[in-house]
Structures are given as C-alpha cells and as structure tokens.
Design brief:
The complex is a heterodimer. By secondary structure, chain A is of the alpha+beta class. Helices cover 43% and strands 18% of the residues of chain A. Chain A contains 7 helices and 8 strands; from the N terminus they run E-H-H-E-E-E-H-E-H-H-H-H-E-E-E. The longest helix of chain B has 26 residues, at 562-587. The chains are: A alpha+beta, B alpha/beta.
Chain lengths: 196, 796
Amino acid sequence: MINEFSCGISAVDLKQTLYYLGVKGEAEESLKRLLCESEREILSVISPKAVYSVFDYCVECEQNGELNLQFAKVKSKSLCKNLKGCKKIALFTATVGTGVDRLILKYQKISPAKATVLQAMGSALIEQFCDSLNAFLISEYNAVKPRFSCGYGDLDISLQRDIFAALSVEKRLGITLLDNFFMTPTKSVTAIVGIL
Amino acid sequence: MTIERKLKNSIIYLDGGTGTLLQEAGLPLGELPEKWNLSHPDKVAKIHRDYFASGSDIVCTNTFGANVFKFGDELESVVEAGVKIAKTVAAEFKDKFVALDIGSLGKLLKPLGALDFEDAVSAFKRTISAGVKAGADLILIETMNDVYELKAAVIAAKEVCSLPVFATCVFGSDGKTMTGTSPEAMVATLEGLGVDALGLNCSLAPDQMFPIVKRIVACTSTPVIVKPNAGLPKVENGKTVYSVNALKFAEDMAKIAECGALVLGGCCGTTPQYIAQLIEKTKTICHKLPKDKNLTVISSYTHCVQFGKAPVLIGERINPTGKKRLKQALKEGDIGYILNEAVTQAERGAHVLDVNVGLPEIDEVSTLTNAVYEIQAVTDLPLQIDTSNFEAMRSALRIYNGKPLINSVNGKKESMGAVFPLVKKYGGTVIALTLDENGIPNTVEGRIEIAKRIICEAEKYGIAKKDLIFDTLAMAVSADSSAAEVALKSLSYLKHIMGVNTSLGVSNVSFGLPNRDFINSTFFAACLANGLSAAIINPNSDEIIKTYKSYCALFGHDENCLNYINYAQSVEAVKFEKTENKQSGNLKLEENLKYCIEKGLKLDSAKMAEERLKTQKPLELIDSEIIPALNSVGKAFENKTLFLPQLLMSAEAAAAAFEVIKNKFPAGANAKKLKVITATVEGDIHDIGKNIVKTLLINYGFNVFDLGKDVPPEKIVAAAKQFNANVVGLSALMTTTVVSMQKTVELLKAECPNIKTVVGGAVLTEEYAQKIGAFAYAKDAMETVRICESLEKQIN
C-alpha cells in the first residue's frame, strides 16, 4: 500500500544553505539580503509531497548475496550493512515540487548569483523535508536507521527504476525519471529507511 | 450512434480503475500492465466486460503506459492487442465505445525536463497511430500532470486522426496541476486546441474535486469529464481498501453531475461496483449541455487573462522597432537582454508581453520560436506572438505553453487565409486590424465595415467572435489631426454596438512629437473611457501606469482603491529612497564603481557607470575600475576569503555596468579576441558549474558561445567550426558522462586540431583530464578565466 506524506516548511535551513554554497564564517550584508530575498521567493513556490510504502525485511531474505527488498532484489553490501537487524523497511520518494526548478531556471537566465543561492536552498529544503518524513517514521515505528539512497556505497542507481514502479511515483507525484536515473523535478529524493 | 451524438443527449459513463484489478488478477508488482494485452488477453477482457456489464458506455484500453520509451518496437503490437481486446468485448454489447487510453510519457518536457516538445508529439503519434489503426472509437488522454505535455498529445491526436479527443489533467487539493496550471488556464488551452471534452481525473476523491469541477464548469463551453479516485488506500484485515466506498463515491458524484459534469467515471481504487452505484445515483439527473460562456481569454501555463473586464496591459518593450539596443541584442543572439526586458515589464505590472523579433537580417522563424520558449521559462505571463511571417507564427504557436494572443490578422484575403487556419489548429485569440487591400480607411464606417468582414470570414473557419480582438489603428496625430478621433469612434462602436473586445497600440498616436508620454497617457485615458479592452503600452512609462491605476480606481476595477493606494504610496517611497541614496553616497569616501562591483551592488554599479561615462571613455572605465574590481574579487575567491555567491554577485554588478556601457557605445565594449565555446557534455544535464564559468568569462570580456547542457560531440564540433572558436570549455558532473567528455575531446582533436579544450566538473581531476587528452583542467571558474587570459595573450 502506498501512503502519502506532506508537511509545511516555514523557513529554509540557512546554515545548510551556506554550507552548500561553500561560504565560511558570517555572511556579509549584501549576501544576507540576497539570502533573505531568495528564501521568500523559494518558500512561496514549494509544494512538499512524498509517498512511501513499508515492506517486510529479514536477514534471511538474503540469498546468493542478493537482498530481497520485496519490491526488488538487489546486490549491495553497503545496504545490507545499513539494514542489519531491521525487520521492515520504509521506501519513500519525496519532492519539493516543480516550482523550485522553475524559479532556478528563471534566475539562471537573469541572475546567476540568485540562481546559485536558490540551488543551494532547494537542496537544503528537500533535505529538511526528508528529515520531517524521517521524524514521522520514527514516531510511527520507533527506531529507524539513517536513510539510504541509490548511489550510496555500492547500491546501484538503476534501482531507481524499481522504486518508481513500486511507489507509482510518476502517477502519484509527477516526478519523472531520466535515462540516467536522475529525477525531474530535480529537488527530489528516493530512499530506503530501515526499521528496527 | 456516434460518441459525439451520445454526448449531446445523455450523461456518458466511463469505466473505473484498471491497475488494482489487474493486480488482483495476478499481475506481479513491477511488471508493465500493458504486457498483459499479449500474455493474458482473457484477464484484460474480463475487466472490460465487467465494466460494460455494470453500465459503462466507454471503456479505456489497457494502454495507459504504452509508449515508445517503455516498449520500443513492441509498442505497436501491445497497443493493437489492447484495442482489439476492448473492441471484441464491446461487440458483445450494444452502443458501447472503446477509448484509446493515453497516459503521460513519464518524461517531463523542456525547459523543466529533458524531453523536446516535438519528440513528445512524435512519441504520442506512434501510440495513437497504432490505436487508431486497430479501431479505437475515440482518444482519451488522461492523468496529465503537465498541460504542456497534454498539448503535445492533443496535437499528435489531431495530426493522426479525426476521432473525438477527451482530455483530463491531475489537480492537487490546492487547485493546481503539478506544474502550476489553474483549472481556468487548462480550459483555455484545451478549448483552443479544440478537444471534445475536458476535465480532471486521479489524485483526489469526488468531494475534494468538487470545488475544482465548479471552477471548470463556470468557464468552459465544452462537456466536462470527472474521474476521481476512491479516496486513499488503507489496509484492513490484510487487504487494501479505499477510504471512499462505492455508495459515498456515487453520492458525491451525483453532486458533481448536478453541477454540470457530463462524462463520469472512476480512477484508482474504483471498480465495476462503483460504476454501477454511480449510474444508479445519477441516472435521473437532467442532461444539460454547457452554455457558451462567451469569454475572451488567453493563458500562460499558470493562469488566464480575460478581456472585457479590467483593461489589460500588453507590454511593448520586446519589439525592435525604434529600439537600437534590442536590435543589437537580436543580431548578437543575446537572449539575456530580452529576458531581462520580459522580467522588468512583468514587475512593472504588464499582464501580457508582446514578442516581436522582426528584423530583416535574422531568421525570424527560429528566433521568434526560441524567444517565446525562453521567455516562458522566466515569466508566467501570457504572451502576444507578434509577427507578419506566417511560418514564424505557426512555429511559435505550436510550442507556446498555453493559449496565446496573436498579433495579428487583418481584412486582407491573404492574411485571413494564412492566420485563421493556425488559430483554429493551435488555439489563440487574435488581434484583428481594421485595414485591408486598400489600406486603412479614413472613416469610422470604413473601419467598421472591415471588422464585420473579418468576423464573417473567421466564422467560416469555426473561429468565434469572442476570439477576435479589434484594433482600430491609432495613427500619428502629428500627420493627421483627426487620427485619434477616428480610432476612438470606431473603437467605441465596435465595443458598444458590436459587442467585441478592442485593443490599441497607444504609443503610435504621438509619433513625431516631443515628450510623447504626455500625449500617450491622455490618449490612453480617452481610449479607456471609450471602452478599450487592452492596450499595447510601455510599462516603464510612469505616466501610463499612473493613468491606468487611476482609471481602475475611478471605474470600479479596483476594490476599495487598494491597488491605487499601494501604487501611489510606492511612487513616493521611491523618490524618498533616491534622495537618501544620494546623501549616503556623498558620505562614503571610497564609493566608486570598483567598490560597488566588489560589494556586488547591481543597481548602484549601473548608476555609477552611467555617472562616470559622462566624463570618462568606456575603455578607460573598464580598465581602471571594472577589471581591477573583478581581479580583486577573483583573487579573494582564490584565497578563500570570499565565496561563490559573492563572486557571482560581483559578476552581476559588473555585467550591469557593462550593460550601461553597451547602451551608450554599442560597438567596442568587447575588448578581447578569444572565442570560447561552453557546453555540458552529452548525457549530462547539470549545468550549474558551466553557467558560473560562462558568467565569469563574459564578465572578463571574452566572446562566449554557450551551447547549453546535454550537447552531443558532433554539435560541439560543428559550433566550434562555425564560430571559429579558440577554446572549448567542457563540463561533466557524473562518472557516467565523463565518457562523452572523452569522446568530445577526441573528436575535437581530429576535426579542429588547433582548438584548446579546457575541462572541469565535480568528478574530474587533473590526472583524468590529461588521460583523455584535454589541453587543460580547471578546478573552478576563476581558473578557467586565468587559462583563457593566458591564451588571449598568446593570440595577441
């Protein structure tokens, strides 16, 4: 069964934004102004939405080095390590929507500085949203492992295709997958969360 | 009976969900459902049969995800089998129809995604051709998150067959599609394209859809389709059930039918039982065809602009007539300048933007199409496609996202014969000029006569009066003192007696006179008082905006005068700020252009440059202030005392200063000779880094030709030859795409041995750059600038 999750986000994590931008120390006045403007604009266009499903998982699911995740079988030592001791897994896909991409696209053409700040803010926002989803999963299922995404360690990025099928991502969230397994809208995340 | 006839006489029932039923029948998770058309035709047939038996008039073929990207060469056989199964089952009953079901291609279109509009049209054509050949009775395009993709699908259907087309989008509970389209904008676009029924499906339960259905019914003249989900899934006793049961679904649908929806069905979670209940609860509801709402509307991908209520302002700044700087930008392919004009006009309060790029020395077809595409990426205002080149008009209308305003048609036979078929096919509201083969009549009667003729001719093409806006042509009052009066009287007659909408290019009237704003704004006020629906004006003119805001406040288009108050107060605030700036400016000792650029103060840099150019020569200014500022910022970045955002803010401030210089001295602002091509390599869509490099290179005065992202090696080589480039800068972000970087470098070496390649990107290293034979590796944008500077010295 595919569940939906959504929540409001009222501020951008500025510390994380500055980290993505490579800014060290205090931001100077003109940059502060740019951050402020960008935050106002980006918050007015986000629409955070996620879908998730919970699958049974057990170590015995492992055969010939292949993990049985129910929705797919996959070879990955790093994921296996991450899921050690888990009884279930939550699979999710989350996005902050196309509005952010559109805003970035606009400013790429007319203000590279703002576009770069918005890129960083978009990344910070999707992480914040995933954190909220994680917090929700903890409240539902108690202890969970850190979220694990395709491309982490040796987990092949082509698993994206199976995740999309399992969660009807295209239909439910309107996210589309490119041939190289990247997603549009770009500020989107797929991940597996181990449940103890 | 045909489906069109049936639609005129009764409510039509579609089927419900298919996916969950297939899964219950044993379809494994992850397998493509359409494959079952070939492997389990009996199970697919049973689902169709159950729906027909429970009362559906139309079933949708099991082809929702059948597209060339998922099925390749197997596509045709999957689609044909799908249609044949449904047709065979339909033949067991009487008066049943089969809709070829078309879903999204699963790829987002450019500019948000990577799929080209024409590639989307071609992909849809393959599925539709196969389905039509197999005997489908109609095309149902559904579950579209993006109206732009929906437009591609409708065009494909219309170009392949003449079957009826039904089309539905997915709306969120916020009343918008995922890509931000309002119900009204969807209606405008789809009615423009001439679909037979339109509406929404999926995502929401019936009661959540109700407010959106109401909005659609209020603005459409086309039958409305509603196909909701059975609410949300939940698990009960180990079985997935949906939160809205069949009875509740049917009761809520009855309210929707009362509201005027004519084509009813279900989406995810609904079953034959739901459809049977739905029919039971709605069969006695009286069938009413939607009335013609007679609205004159255009739309962007987000919202509509309606004519005939508050006057509409059409920004005229993107039109090269009499604008030196825009001409230069068009010749140089400087799209950035045009996009800035677009954004500024939007900020100044324009509702629609005119786009005219007609210059004798450029290819208008590609330039106009590209400009429309690029402008739609930076603004959500509807556009007015303004050209007398019919091929350019066709090409721009085709890729426009929404229902555009078209400028223009006139009373000449040739004009009407060329423009009306385009309006009919792609949709649009067209400005009609009251002139013909004999020129512009001097009299009011002459102009009215032409307007009547245009209305008659449009009707022959099936274009209603509501999609014509008449321009009675304001000519220069300096040449003919009665010009303003004739235009106004014709306008008033057309508006009040003939009941059509009107538009005028206001600024023409003052041609040849000094301080044209005075005349323009007074004439504008007179036009508004005579019933003008839309005006093509300069939004940067304070006089025009003042007149507009005052008119709206005076004549009931501004509730409680709030807009006026806001505007009037902001004008004062601006004045106040200006004087304050000056004061602080005098106090700052070190405030000069260099300082403004270093601090990334864009507006101040432009102002300062303007000031300096009164006494200094452009090259002197560049060498003494702009370049030193860029250098000091660049050094600070390299020393890590200043960071990327500040580097870019300074770059923008410098660009603003350059823009001022370019305005004053169009020739000679570009001092450097080195020609650089920038591109992100094939397969890679990450262009953040490449764009930063481009920005800095332009700043340092290099001649940059940017090819964008995902660029094939052949295209890069061709461009290198065409522009006679010295340097090609390549960026790749992923390990998987460094391969295409290598290919590009090799091809360049073979074809253009003198070109230097500079490579960079997250996964690249100095070592790897050497391995693939690149001339140089640049670790960041500043290093690219340094490399190019040393190459510049070599060629001098």
